[in-house]
Amino acid sequence: MNNFSYTQAGSAKEATGIRKDKPQAAYIAGGTTLLDLMKANLEEHPQLVDINLLPFKGLEQTKDGLRIGALERMSDVGENALVKQQFPAVSESLLLAASPQLRNMASIGGNILQRTRCGYFRDAAFPCNKRVPGSGCPAQQGDNHNLAILGVSEACIATSYPGDLSVALAAFDAVLTLENQKGKQRRVPITEFYRLPGNTPHIETVLEPGELIVSVLVPAAAYTQRSTYLKVRERSSYAYALTSAAVGLDVQGGSIRAARVALGGVGAQPWRSREAEQILTGAPATEATFRAAAAAALRGAQPREHNRFKVELAQNTLVQALQKVAG
Amino acid sequence: MDTEPAFFETNPKAGSVGQPLDRVDGRAKVTGQARYSAEFNSLPGLVHAVLKTSEVAKGRIQSIDTSLALKEPGVVAILTHQNLPQLAKTPNSPEGKKAIGAPMGFLPLTTDQVHYAGQPVAIVLANTLERAQHAAALVRVNIAAEKPLASYADPRAELFDPQKVQDGKTQGHTVRGNPKAAFAAAPVQLTHTYEHAINHHNPMEPGSTTAHWEAPDRVTVYESTQGVTRTQKALSAMLGLPTEQVRVVTKYLGGGFGCKGSTWPHTVLTVQAAKAVGRPVKLALTRPQMFTSMGHREDQTQTLKVGATKEGKLLALIHEKTSTTSPWDNYAEPNSRIINLLYNCPTFESTYQLARADVMTSTFMRAPGEAPGSFAIECSLDDLAYQLGIDPLEIRLRNYAEKDPSNGKPWSSKSLKQCYARGAELFGWSKRNPQAGATRDGRLLVGWGMATASYPVHNNQGTARVRLYADGHAVVQTGATDLGTGTYTVMTQVAADALWLTPDKIRFELGDTRLPTAPNSGGSVAAGTVSSSIYMAAQDVWQKLIKLATQDKKSPLYRAKAADVVVENGRMVLKANKAKGEDFATLMKRNETTDIEGTGNGKYGAGYESGLAAGPADSGHQDDMAGHSMHSFGVHFCEVKVDPDLGTVRVSRWVSVHAAGRILNAKTARSQIIGGSIFGIGNALMEGTFRDPNFARYTNSNLADYHVPVCADIPDMTVEFIEEHDPYINAMGVKGIGEISMVGVSAAVANAVFHATGKRIRSLPITPDKVLETKKVQA
């Protein structure tokens, strides 16, 4: 790890101002992902700007939905009674992630920006197009057991976002509020926030240099209340998802009026499946419908040697999640 | 440097052997008083070492540029193969390796060759850890890389017959009877192949060394080792110093599981670094370095052919193992050992095949050989049971070995039938549905499985010293190691009983080469050997006291024959008239004797019951006392719940019953069986290190991606022991339980998965992808 300086910013303006002067500086909130990356020499920053004093806090129900400050901690949001009642998938995605210690530290904004667990990215001794553009992707012929099968490219097959929360956010059309160095705010749907790898897997989001995540808005709907997040992993806790599904259904008289579906662990980004939603919408809430939706969600999957199982597992995960909320 | 509290705090009322005495070192550990090998920070001028390791697996170092790193503040030195002080001996030749007792026939920083990814290529020394880490990142190592070979599975790998494996301890080829003919003629024939992922030990405490040269020819090494004596021998051979000039200290160890059983390169490199800079040096391996510094359980495939009668009686067992080894050593864990002796089978054959790859040498890991070997035999036996429609427990009873089939010798003791019966009762095995894939709990499939466990009693020589003081306390010393499993506690109990004192009067010291020598704490030998040594040393004290009494005119025992005197309730009394005698304090005070010292040698033979060890001397063969075969036995019963759509397997119930001679402490023993079973569940369901086939480098060398069980993976576990009195194994009749706890565990889980799903998974770990992809077997 390189030496770095540490500054506590009192305002967004101060924080972005430092980044303007020092583009290589990084913001730090909970630090649970950044410090790991720095210790492993995967990221180097001359300066860390602590943004914990910024007013990006709070958790409230607005007329547009649930507004979560980017500096709220995972555990606080996950355990919040309102979130548990009105947005169970969001709560579950938070509480099934990481460990209690990490959840107590990690911020919502930091969670959204966590980086891949691909073993080739996490070890600087390997080539990795995401880390060193143009160096190659050994995962294609190597250890791809945990990696993506949808939205991948020849340059990168990482599950660029390996976590859980953004999968739930992607399902429910969450919108991020960002603030740039000029103090200007803009709103970006989470489904447009992450970028597919293509030939530039090192560019992971549409976040501009120095831009901050201020808050997340999750619109409320019948299907957010009737939602779940199902996570499949190799041990019962403290493991990244092999596959996961965030789903919400609005079912009336056995028929699906509206559906939201996103998959985790399988996509180069949190994988919203409008194909599955199309099949679900207007159809009877039966296993046959769910199976058809799952097949549609995985159509076009490009598995490699060690992650072939994800094609079936992701479908089964989605079906099970849908069955759970359909009741 | 005194590191122990003067006396351990204990509950004096629960002292006797077998009682669940709380850990005597528990308070020291939870309050931070217990110092581990990387915690001797007050040594004057202590320097922190960081290893710079090779990114590539094969190549030759062209140049090492240390100029940038050396400019950093606080950097003391950077040592490479070009400037590290020369050793008197290295393991780089077979003779050197043998003299040192090294686990690997190669020492990094002795040449410019790179043989494995993660091989140390430089040692960076600085006055703080952070500065050393940073400087290490600035060292530029230019290696001319070559394409490495990652494993025996690579088509380029060349398989060879090693003649012997495990450093010559195991024959590469063993035949008993005519197994090929017996198999060919067998009415029932099974041939199955089993695969095992690489496993890494990953104790909580990483490998760590603090080296302090107190004089140019005298060094003290605080080392995380399972055996100070073995480390001392290895270091003195490499350094060219007499053993008394090398002191090795291990007061506390945070687990080992075998990876701390040998002296790996980082230890001597740290000692050499300290010599080079003339200051104490401390090195603690990082977690990623733990995957490439202290060995691993090798990647391997086993094929087992089973020939049997239609009644399920074994006729032939033919075992082949293929595994990866390093460029220098013929290491393979001895899987065949347990297959040869677990069941009554008239013929047997085993063959080992190895392939060299650009990896470090693998090493023993908890139950080496027995763990994977039991997976093959116990899954195959389960197959046989289903194929013939026999209950899996019943088929094991039909093949019960009343003597050791591998050599025809009687067992020193064997209580496996009692273990089966008690385990089956606790688990409710009689209610088992004989049909596989037929029991459900909601949408989950429920399966029951069981497997036999066995582990040899590798007896060893050990020594102990007991000094009894007239004021009623005693100091007990031996150079053993406590891996964290309870050695401090159980040995305190043994000494207390042998001296008729309460445990709070015992000060027990271990982990220092200045103390009487003890064997490595490995192969489950420590409990039996060390307890017997202490017991014998206490007897030596009593004999000296009796001699003193019989020569003391004022003693009631004056002129009695020593053989007529016994010790009861702490008093020396006449056998014929127990009212006549006195206690040691009275005798010693009258004679103005402040203390009496006794020494003891733990080895084979009975003693605990009769009051004196009476067995013959070491017969020469480690595992053969008076013509007996010495083993622990036990059984695991397991229930799993499998999600057929998600492929997830969760262990929902667990029963282990073992017979392992005398159990020294009911609580620490239970904990050890639980720990070993969890270790085995990890091996069964989640542990596996992935070595990239093109780079021969691990892709998951951290504890987020190398999965070990978490609490949520483990149900309440039921553990019981069958009382067993073995008059042959050692003075205390203790067999040791460190390893048997994990033998058979992976098979019990796999057998339960089969019972749940009808799917036979022969590849470890049993992860969801394998459950989904494996087709159902027609049972």
From TrEMBL, chain A:
PANTHER family: OXIDOREDUCTASE (PTHR42659:SF1), XANTHINE DEHYDROGENASE SUBUNIT C-RELATED (PTHR42659). Gene3D superfamilies: 3.30.465.10, CO dehydrogenase flavoprotein, C-terminal domain (3.30.390.50), Uridine Diphospho-n-acetylenolpyruvylglucosamine Reductase, domain 2 (3.30.43.10). Pfam families: CO_deh_flav_C, FAD_binding_5. This is Xanthine dehydrogenase YagS FAD-binding subunit. Coiled coil: none annotated. GO terms for molecular function: FAD binding; xanthine dehydrogenase activity. It comes from Hymenobacter luteus. Keywords: FAD, Flavoprotein, Oxidoreductase. Residues 1-223 form the FAD-binding PCMH-type domain. Its EC number is 1.17.1.4. SMART domains: CO_deh_flav_C (SM01092). InterPro entries: CO_DH_flav_C, CO_DH_flav_C_dom_sf, Diverse_Substr_Oxidored, FAD-bd_PCMH, FAD-bd_PCMH-like_sf, FAD-bd_PCMH_sub1, FAD-bd_PCMH_sub2, Mopterin_DH_FAD-bd.
Automatic annotation (TrEMBL), chain B:
SUPFAM superfamilies: CO dehydrogenase molybdoprotein N-domain-like (SSF54665), Molybdenum cofactor-binding domain (SSF56003). Keywords: Oxidoreductase. The keyword Hydrolase does not apply. InterPro entries: Ald_Oxase/Xan_DH_a/b, Ald_Oxase/Xan_DH_a/b_sf, Ald_Oxase/xanthine_DH-like, AldOxase/xan_DH_MoCoBD1, AldOxase/xan_DH_MoCoBD2, AldOxase/xan_DH_Mopterin-bd_sf. Residues 31-147 form the Aldehyde oxidase/xanthine dehydrogenase a/b hammerhead domain. GO terms for molecular function: iron ion binding; xanthine dehydrogenase activity. It is an enzyme of class 1 (oxidoreductase). It comes from the Bacteria. The keyword Coiled coil does not apply. Residues 1-22 are annotated as: Disordered. This is Xanthine dehydrogenase YagR molybdenum-binding subunit. It comes from Hymenobacter luteus. The lineage of its organism: Bacteria, Pseudomonadati, Bacteroidota, Cytophagia, Cytophagales.
